[in-house]
Amino acid sequence: MSELPLRAQLASVLGRSAAGLSRATGRGDGSVIGGKIALKVEPDLLAKLARGRRLALVSATNGKTTTTRLISQALRDLGEVATNEHGANMPTGHITALSNNRSAVNGVLEVDEKYLPQVLVATQPEFVVLMNLSRDQMDRASEINLLAKRWRIALGKSNTRVIANADDPLVAWAGLGAPHATWVSAGQRWKEDSWCCPECGGHLRREQDPYWACPECGLSRPQTTWSVDNDSDVLVTPEGQRIKLRLNLPGDANRSNAAIAAATAAGYGLHPERTVERLREITSVAGRYTSVVTMGVEVRLLLSKNPAGWLESFAVLDPPATPVILSVNAQIPDGKDTSWLWDVDYRVLRDRRVFVMGERRTDLALRLETDGVRFETADRVDEVLAKLKAEQPGLTKVDLIANYTAFQQIRTAYGRVQ
Amino acid sequence: MTNTSALRIVWIYPDLLSTYGDRGNVLILQRRAELRGIATEIVHVHSSDAVPEQGDIYLLGGGEDRPQILAAERLRADGGLIRAAARGACVFAVCAGYQIIGENYGDDEANPLPGLGILDIRSGRGQSRAVGEIVADVDPALGVGRITGFENHQGRTEIGPSARPLSTTVRGIGNDDRTEGAYQGQVLGTYLHGPALPRNPQLADLLLRWRVGQLAPLPPAWGERLHEERLAAALS
Ligand SMILES: [Zn+2]
């Protein structure tokens, strides 16, 4: 990539030194600020930096950071990989990721749902990887039907291969716009945003999960070649090979992410058996699923930003004897509107010890009261642990589910772990 | 399964009109009725089902542009909700639901589309999107006091002579920067989206009172606390 025009090189260097500065001054990981400066100097930089590479763009409401990490881990078998693993998923972050690794032929970029069409045009990726679309921070995010439509149109004008979850009707409908597709049956736990046909609005027939079909216009789930068998923890390949997953990330959602990652890695020529071995090496992604040990108690951190995410977190909670802390804020990155709390069904917490924290704990308290879940309120994690330890000195584990800024506050207070 | 003595709460089209937290309104009505010993029956009506005409309280939630248009078309063709309202049933509609129970509303290119005509309002699109916490004082005739919620809409609504504004805005945009929501008989609509009733227990009680008459008071709980907290936060 040494033949970049001078201006582009300059921009790229500028971007990198600003990123270095931001890292050195401790103001962040540098991935956003670096690219922001670069974009001002050279708007086509992203296109230039992408040229000659084999890129995969990864987008979804949930799991895009994890899946990006999984795919890039698999691709490392082929050499260096350019990737935005710190989650800076807008064009500025993509420029930083690509300019930080000029020699990598392969790249995996996490892309914000809204930016996917423009990043697709700029980077001409070989693959676009799509997992799910559901309601998320609606005070600032786009309507998801509109997003799906924009994806579909952008894919229709591209020459990319889509690797997508056929079990999510909105995602499948968007992916059907692409000229080539690999369909994965990756499952869909949260269905509240896809009861209606994306094509005509008819009420979908979905009696037999994961199949869906529209009785009015005939749109139906595409035939899949890859799938996950959650009950037996197995990935099924297009050849019918059954590969035991045994991931170190918990839950069905991560099995889905792994299946999508394996299908993408296969597009790069990697054998799924080898891919799955590589995927097992990942034990946490940007602090998610890791534990902090404080006051002798292991606190497992689960990040959940929207109703679909909370549903997935509930599914990986420890058995009911393990207490759970829920923490909710409503700052700009979280969305200022807490209405989504009412879309989550909390009744699964009825037989647990539950604590509520965060700036919007009163919203959460009313929500739990309405679902008949008993709870206590608290200001801090150590306050909860002190209380629990006084009652049960042998306590060793607590689960904690938090939304974005609540999660970051707890990570900062109890150590940035990796 | 129909219990003739139970309060029938009908949730209209949760598959089309349930964008963000609309379930909360169903849950709070049910809870505040049952805490007073009033039995409830909850009916979910999908967009492919006929709307039952013998409900007590009909709830309509928010929706994106396309689902809103589909819901309006289907409800007009079905006619059940229009007949229930004519019979005097209570209708509580939020956001996109509020707009479609009116005479007409605007699509994403501001073309007027026909609504159900059970509330004398007309809605179009404003220049800017109204997003944020809203506070408003409800018409004193309703005995509800000050309400608070979150609004997230592009709509602007004009109120005709047969309806009355629900409230006067203290903070936020609502219908037109001056008033928020509208009511006519027991048909009530608002831009307070999602869980408007959980955040305003006294508004939930108004709907219940319309159906069952005088209500026993409930001891203040988390709902009242949340109401106070959000009011204080929005006005600080
Ligand atoms: Zn259809």
TrEMBL record, chain A:
Zn(2+) binds at C197, C200, C214, C217. One of its GO terms (molecular function) is ATP binding. Pathway: Cell wall biogenesis; peptidoglycan biosynthesis. One of its GO terms (biological process) is regulation of cell shape. The active site is at D337. The keyword Ligase applies. It is an enzyme of class 6 (ligase). Residues 61-169 form the Mur ligase central domain. Keywords: ATP-binding, Cell shape, Cell wall biogenesis/degradation, Ligase, Metal-binding, Nucleotide-binding, Peptidoglycan synthesis, Zinc. Residues 303-407 form the Lipid II isoglutaminyl synthase (glutamine-hydrolyzing) subunit MurT C-terminal domain. It catalyses: beta-D-GlcNAc-(1->4)-Mur2Ac(oyl-L-Ala-gamma-D-Glu-L-Lys-D-Ala-D-Ala)-di-trans,octa-cis-undecaprenyl diphosphate + ATP = beta-D-GlcNAc-(1->4)-Mur2Ac(oyl-L-Ala-gamma-D-O-P-Glu-L-Lys-D-Ala-D-Ala)-di-trans,octa-cis-undecaprenyl diphosphate + ADP; beta-D-GlcNAc-(1->4)-Mur2Ac(oyl-L-Ala-gamma-D-Glu-L-Lys-D-Ala-D-Ala)-di-trans,octa-cis-undecaprenyl diphosphate + L-glutamine + ATP + H2O = beta-D-GlcNAc-(1->4)-Mur2Ac(oyl-L-Ala-D-isoglutaminyl-L-Lys-D-Ala-D-Ala)-di-trans,octa-cis-undecaprenyl diphosphate + L-glutamate + ADP + phosphate + H(+); beta-D-GlcNAc-(1->4)-Mur2Ac(oyl-L-Ala-gamma-D-O-P-Glu-L-Lys-D-Ala-D-Ala)-di-trans,octa-cis-undecaprenyl diphosphate + NH4(+) = beta-D-GlcNAc-(1->4)-Mur2Ac(oyl-L-Ala-D-isoglutaminyl-L-Lys-D-Ala-D-Ala)-di-trans,octa-cis-undecaprenyl diphosphate + phosphate + H(+). Its EC number is 6.3.5.13. It comes from the Bacteria. Forms a heterodimer with GatD. Belongs to the MurCDEF family. MurT subfamily. The lipid II isoglutaminyl synthase complex catalyzes the formation of alpha-D-isoglutamine in the cell wall lipid II stem peptide. The MurT subunit catalyzes the ATP-dependent amidation of D-glutamate residue of lipid II, converting it to an isoglutamine residue. PANTHER family: LIPID II ISOGLUTAMINYL SYNTHASE (GLUTAMINE-HYDROLYZING) SUBUNIT MURT, MUR LIGASE FAMILY MEMBER. This is Lipid II isoglutaminyl synthase (glutamine-hydrolyzing) subunit MurT. It comes from Nocardiopsis flavescens.
TrEMBL record, chain B:
Residues 8-200 form the CobB/CobQ-like glutamine amidotransferase domain. GO terms for biological process: cell wall organization; cobalamin biosynthetic process; peptidoglycan biosynthetic process; regulation of cell shape. It catalyses: beta-D-GlcNAc-(1->4)-Mur2Ac(oyl-L-Ala-gamma-D-Glu-L-Lys-D-Ala-D-Ala)-di-trans,octa-cis-undecaprenyl diphosphate + L-glutamine + ATP + H2O = beta-D-GlcNAc-(1->4)-Mur2Ac(oyl-L-Ala-D-isoglutaminyl-L-Lys-D-Ala-D-Ala)-di-trans,octa-cis-undecaprenyl diphosphate + L-glutamate + ADP + phosphate + H(+); L-glutamine + H2O = L-glutamate + NH4(+). Gene3D superfamilies: 3.40.50.880. The active site is at C95, H193. Substrate binds at R129. The keyword Hydrolase applies. InterPro entries: Class_I_gatase-like, CobQ_GATase1, GATase_3, Lipid_II_synth_GatD. Its EC number is 6.3.5.13, 3.5.1.2. GO terms for molecular function: carbon-nitrogen ligase activity on lipid II; glutaminase activity. PROSITE patterns: GATASE_COBBQ. Pathway: Cell wall biogenesis; peptidoglycan biosynthesis. Belongs to the CobB/CobQ family. GatD subfamily. The lipid II isoglutaminyl synthase complex catalyzes the formation of alpha-D-isoglutamine in the cell wall lipid II stem peptide. The GatD subunit catalyzes the hydrolysis of glutamine to glutamate and ammonia. The resulting ammonia molecule is channeled to the active site of MurT. This is Lipid II isoglutaminyl synthase (glutamine-hydrolyzing) subunit GatD. It comes from Nocardiopsis flavescens.
